[in-house]
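Lab notebook page, bench 4
Experiment: in silico fold of construct C2
Operator: M.H.
Input chain length: 166 residues
Purpose: comparison with the prior construct
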Amino acid sequence: MPRPSFPRDAAAAGTNPRTPSRGLFLTAAFAGLTTYAAAATQRAPAANVGTMIVYRDTGCTCCEGWAAAMSAAGYANTVKEIDHDARLKRFSIPVALAGCHTAVGRGYLIEGHVPVQAVAKLFAERPKTRGISAPGMPSGTPGMPGPASRFDVVFLDEPRHVFYTS
């Protein structure tokens, strides 16, 4: 007896029409990798924004968080330990403006937990100053725990002159 003939469909062929073919899968994977590579290339220039040396107080760990935030923003940095009083004396940082680290980059001093945006502004505007400071240890800044606090970043030479407000 002859077998009945039915229209050939995906189920009869052993394939699922909802499952992408190997070719479609490879095309989608290639497109995804291409998109990722293009996005990574667009971010690549940030890797060369600048370099700085971060002099942190001996044993201080919050400075690592600040240095990591600077690295994420494209500022390559090297962290070196130094005694607190020796650091303030070496860079002529007034005690009232002191933080726990001093970064040196592009001819400027960056004292304490200065936000990335303020560093970018400093490097872009190039004001005539020795540097800027976020006095103390403001909470919520890169490397510091706690909720974000509002604070001023001031000029080292003119501490009453606000350069940036967080």
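Observations: The chain has two domains: 10-43, 50-165. Residues 22-43 form the longest helix (22 residues).
Next step: discuss at group meeting.
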